[in-house]
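Input chain follows. Return structure tokens only.
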Amino acid sequence: MSNARVFAMKFSKVYPLYVQKAERKNRTREEVDQVICWLTGYSPAGLQEQIDKDSDFAVFFAEAPALHPNRALIKGVVCGVRVEDVDDPLMQKIRYLDKLVDELAKGKALEKILR
């Protein structure tokens, strides 16, 4: 899938998939929200607003209040791609989010996920 297609994907369509993935592993929607808010700086209300607005990933990250300064500490592989090696800044942010949700679903403690 091209970067442009990924950037145009609606966050509101992907968000339930993040929640489903976490819930299958006995994690909660609140924990998914906490991870997303940690990365992006959104408040829970701001996150819900983005979902309600049907923002795509490009808008979702462009309007993020404050990306967490420790996001560069997120390392590892998502979908066969090492997140720290992704060249496109927006795609890297998306991969960071994917990696955090993966770690949550794998049972990693929130304290370790939120570096």
